[in-house]
From TrEMBL:
GO terms for biological process: fatty acid biosynthetic process. Keywords: NADP. Belongs to the short-chain dehydrogenases/reductases (SDR) family. It holds the Pfam family adh_short. PANTHER family: 3-OXOACYL-(ACYL-CARRIER-PROTEIN) REDUCTASE, SHORT-CHAIN DEHYDROGENASES/REDUCTASES FAMILY MEMBER. InterPro entries: NAD(P)-bd_dom_sf (IPR036291), Sc_DH/Rdtase_CS (IPR020904), SDR_fam (IPR002347). This is Uncharacterized protein. The keyword Cell division does not apply. GO terms for molecular function: oxidoreductase activity, acting on the CH-OH group of donors, NAD or NADP as acceptor; quinone binding.
Length: 490
């Protein structure tokens, strides 16, 4: 184990594979949104007078943004009060601009007023929306038209005029909309609401593709019921949504676009990362160490020297503890030892990042059974074992935890010449969703990252993992979040 006066404890274990090229490139490169210079500093939030919108405005102000607050004229008193709070408690500028987001001229004035009052627009959060519960048969045309105008046309107008301003400025930006779990699955008595939230997802994906060349990312949050008991056995709050928006607006999320991220589920301090000697695994380990975690680093014995270097870097440059445990993450006994030794030497397991994996390139018809079995063993059996034994330890500890697997854009859309790899990454998504449901009762969230070709900056993936294991990510579970610059959508 590495300590501040490094001593090493290496766990010897057998392995059965030749040296593997992790992070193999197998997808065509996509154009990524350019990183914004410095930090984004001006944000517009619609529907800002209460609930999620208010929480987002407060969070972005605390993050260092000047904010433009919008709501209906009838809510002017509430947004004036919020403006005062922001100025007094955060020292940021806040302007209030009342208007109806479903009215084109009002949205134009909102954008122009923000530019005039704050100097530009870097983030647009199109949060305003309404909901009513009625059967389809009982819904009137007037009710239907109203919800479509506010939730659908309002989002369209906010996206459109924010994008025009961002393109004019030439420095990129972030556009974030309000979808819902009801935008991913229809529900009875919510036909009008559901249809508008499906619309927001489609609009988000289209906007992401059209504006990527301008360095603009477009995403949406998709919350379940807020302030109600949910599957995790905890209350979802507006602050949970605000945390996601804060992340999506940050430099760390510059390569996430076109996504509608579901949110319907105490910061841990010990993390296990498999496949940690290079690439994504190394980047994740270093990022979590910087976030304040002690690390258990795992990879094959053939990669021990590289793993040692990562451990030394964590101890000497970051000041965290690092335990190096070589072994095969697809061998049950090795995974048992990995989890047990981490718990014994570092005090527990709060985060498991099942990152290790391999890729095999070639048409299905030319792949033999041995190659198929091997990739399934490493990419699927490995995560199964890591999930299983990490969860068992977390349940024993009784303080919840975070489990994160490695899926891929190839786990959302099958692609030729990587059929076996794609199959395993689809399977990781299924495993992740099932585990999320089984272990929610224990306060354990289970998610996966789904990168595109990782010529992507490894830090983009590490940033997502950092967010998912934080307090802000406590209500996100069962998700496979794409990081590919808008190449593939669900």
């Amino acid at each position: 184990m590495f300590t501040r006066q490094p001593t090493q404890l290496f766990l010897k274990s057998t392995w059965h594979l030749p040296k593997l090229a992790l992070g193999a490139r197998f997808l065509s490169r996509t154009t990524s949104p350019s990183a914004l210079p410095g930090l984004n500093r001006t944000a517009v939030i619609t529907g800002a007078s209460r609930g999620i919108g208010r929480a987002i405005a407060l969070r972005l102000a605390h993050d260092g943004y000047d904010v433009a607050l919008n709501d209906l004229p009838s809510s002017s008193g509430l947004i004036d009060e919020l403006s005062t709070i922001i100025k007094e408690k955060t020292g940021r500028k806040a302007v209030t601009l009342t208007g109806d987001v479903s009215v084109e001229e009002d949205v134009r004035k909102l954008v122009d007023g923000t530019v005039e009052g704050l100097g530009g627009i870097d983030v647009m959060v199109a949060n305003a929306g309404i909901c009513f519960t009625k059967s389809i048969a009982d819904t009137t045309v007037k009710e239907w038209d109203k919800i479509q105008a506010i939730n659908g046309r309002g989002t369209f107008l906010c996206y459109k005029y924010a994008a025009l301003q961002m393109i004019k400025q030439g420095r990129g930006g972030r556009i974030i909309g309000a979808s819902s779990v009801a935008g991913k699955q229809g529900w009875p008595y919510l036909s009008g609401y559901c249809s508008t939230k499906f619309v927001v997802r489609a609009l988000t994906q289209s906007g992401a593709q059209e504006w990527a060349k301008h360095g603009i990312t477009v995403n949406a949050y998709a919350p379940g019921p807020i302030e109600t008991d949910m599957s995790l056995g905890i209350n979802g709050t507006p602050e949970d949504i605000a945390g996601l928006v804060s992340y999506l607006a940050s430099d760390q999320a510059k390569f996430i676009t076109g996504q509608a991220i579901t949110i319907d589920g105490e910061r841990p301090r010990v993390a296990v990362v498999t496949g940690a000697s290079r690439g994504i695994g190394r980047a994740i380990a270093l990022r979590l160490a910087k976030d304040g975690y002690d690390l258990a680093l795992n990879d094959l014995p053939s990669n021990q020297s590289q793993l040692d270097k990562v451990g030394s870097e964590i101890v000497e440059h970051i000041g965290r503890r690092a335990l190096v445990l070589t072994g095969d993450a697809a061998v049950e006994e090795d995974v048992k030892i990995l989890v047990n030794k981490t718990a014994e030497d570092l005090g527990g397991v709060d985060v498991m990042v099942a990152n290790a994996g391999i890729a095999v390139i070639g048409p299905l018809i030319s792949q033999d059974t041995e190659a198929w079995d091997n990739i399934v063993r490493v990419n699927l059996k490995g995560p199964f074992l890591c999930y299983k034994y990490a969860a068992a330890q977390m349940i024993k500890q009784g303080s919840g935890g975070r489990i994160i697997g490695a899926s891929s854009v190839a786990g959302k859309k099958g692609m030729r010449t990587i059929g076996a790899y794609s199959a395993t990454k689809f399977a990781v998504r299924g495993l992740t969703q099932t585990a999320a449901q089984e272990w929610a009762q224990y306060g354990i969230t289970v998610n996966a990252y789904a990168p595109g070709p990782i010529e992507t900056d490894m830090k983009d993936v590490a940033g997502l993992v950092s967010y998912l294991v934080s307090d802000q990510g406590r209500f996100i579970t069962g998700q496979a979040i794409t990081i590919d610059g808008g190449m593939i959508y669900e």
